[in-house]
Amino acid sequence: MYTRPRIIPVLLIDDGDLIKTKQFGSPTYLGDPVNAVKIFNRKGIDELAILDISATRLEKEPDFELLKDIASQAFMPLSYGGGIKSVEQVRKLIATGYEKIVINTEFVKNPEFIKAAVELAGGQSVVVSIDVKEINCQYKCAISDGREIIDASPVELAKKAEELGAGEIFLNSIDRDGMMQGYDIELVKNVADAVNIPVTACGGASGIQDLKRVLQEGKAHAAAAGSMFVFYGRLKAVLITVPTEAELTESGIYCAFI
């Protein structure tokens, strides 16, 4: 028997393509997202997050045809974020096979939407995404794929999300995104200590030890990452790779009990 904090690969979609960013910019093309999902199927991952970074920017609704194709090939729990503005979209995503709906911009612009989404799908299925950038030594939040800085701290937004009924926080560091230099442990711990709902940390992971630190020192309930799952080696060749269960157990992330 194992205690298993969740390890979550994050796939970024930009106009139908699978990409990876650095600090929410400088996208690298990786290929077809459906093919990537097929490979992850064989890796035994806990959950897969699909984030469409162009949907909000281009003011488009979720690409339901692509999302249907992804869901048809996925044999793990799925979460999706990007361009979600209506309860009908939430209903359609749940029906398509997505267990969790990730909401960022609309949470700030229309907080009551979170209540409506929770009423429809239940709090366990509604995740509020908080994108954070450090400005003048202070944590500030951003919406619209990091393009608009708002006057709110991540702790303030996390508490508000919990009050509205969201069941989870997806906390993403813009500064650490794609840099593979470790999570912002202080940021994660501050938010995790402030709320009673699970916090998933994202941004900066380069390997197993980063996952371990954010789970143990940062008090995250789950560790999400992009680059460490799609790049390999010093030259960052595109290769989907996931730590094995034995490696995660040996590192102390998974704990075995007799």
Task: Set down the secondary structure blueprint.
Elements: E1 2-3, E2 6-14, E3 17-22, E4 25-31, H1 33-41, E5 48-52, H2 64-73, E6 78-81, H3 87-96, E7 100-103, H4 105-109, H5 112-121, E8 126-135, E9 138-143, E10 148-150, H6 154-164, E11 168-173, H7 185-194, E12 199-202, H8 208-216, E13 222-225, H9 227-230, E14 231-232, E15 237-238, H10 245-251, E16 255-256
Parallel strand pairs: 2-5, 2-13, 5-6, 6-7, 7-8, 8-11, 11-12, 12-13
Antiparallel strand pairs: 1-16, 2-3, 3-4, 8-9, 9-10, 14-15
Helix pairs in contact: 1-2, 3-5, 6-7
What does this structure look like?
This is imidazole glycerol-phosphate synthase. It is a single chain. Helix content is 33%, strand content 29%. With 258 residues, the chain is α/β, with parallel strands linked by helices. A hairpin with a 2-residue loop joins β3 (17-22) and β4. α1 runs parallel beside α2, α3 (87-96) packs parallel to α5 (112-121) and α6 runs parallel beside α7 (185-194). The radius of gyration is 17 Å and the shape is globular. The mean pLDDT is 95.
Averaged pLDDT: 95
Number of β-strand runs? 16
Gyration radius (Cα, Å) is 17 Å
Lateral arrangement of strands in the main beta sheet: 2-5-6-7-8-11-12-13
Beta-strand content: 25-35%
Report how far the terminal alpha carbons are from each other: 7 Å
Largest sheet: 8 strands, parallel, barrel
Give the % helix.
Answer: 25-40%
Oligomer: single chain
Given the C-alpha coordinates, what overall shape results?
globular
